[in-house]
Write the structure tokens for this entry.
Amino acid sequence: MTTRLRKLGRFRPVIPSLEFDEDGFERRLVWMFGSPRTGSTWLMNLLSAQPEVVPVNESGLGQHLVALEAETGADGVPRFVDGNATRADDVNYFFARNYEYSWAPLMRYAILGRLYTQADRMARQRGVSDPWMALKEPNGSHAADWILDRLFHGSRLLFVLRDGRDVVDSVMDGLLHSEWIGQWNPGFRTIEPEQRLHYVRVNSALWVYRTEAVQRAYEGREQGQRFLVRYEELLSDTALHLGRLYEWLQLDVDAGVVEATVREHSFEAVPEASKGQGKIVRAATPGLWRENLTAEEQAEMERIMGPKLRELGYGAG
């Protein structure tokens, strides 16, 4: 069947569709961007303990929509770039800037429709209406500003931040003693000891690149559309910061319910067999990078991440 498209308002096409309020649903999307190993899974579980918040655990949108390209300089440090931006002026490129008026509204509509069907089904199962949808997207965080600026101006951003040195230390634990990485990447093999320094460099540069993308998206949001949560603060007083997040989402949650949710999802509540070295739940202890990474590796992290760490308030080692 051929469908004629026409524009309404800001490039919005009218096509055979689901019956749902696009703009209203978009305002209830909460994109959880930051970096892998920032406690984002823990936070997603804390938020979605309330039936009004339905979770999406890594849809892969950022990774599929925005090409992440890199080359390694003479200093051994990868330089990451937005592959979409490098071809934005090429009219043959699907995401060409000249044709944004055509592809952006259609893509927005397709993604909203897909997410709405999942949100609606989960909301019915939970016995709620008009839920919030928390989309945990750490591996797609390099696309945070692209997704929010081009497609979802009206949605919210939850910036999940953690000391980049602990992020790298946690990633290295997975690469060296993987159980959880193998679950997401069939065929993955742990790295060899002589590869450690290379992967410390790569993941240090990735942390900076992802963090800067989320910072740009954060700065582009209005005050009520954005929330910054630091892993270290959430860990030190989970109930306080979780309560503030519920308030941000306009959820009236009793203090006793908050405390019970915190206990249920605490590190201590995780079975001993499911946490520790090589597990997706490892230690919940900031600063372990000082013990687990060599002096040379720590120096490389400082060289690559140092300025960004200071900017964000993380002190020297």
Residues 1-9 have pLDDT under 50 and may be disordered. The radius of gyration is 21 Å.
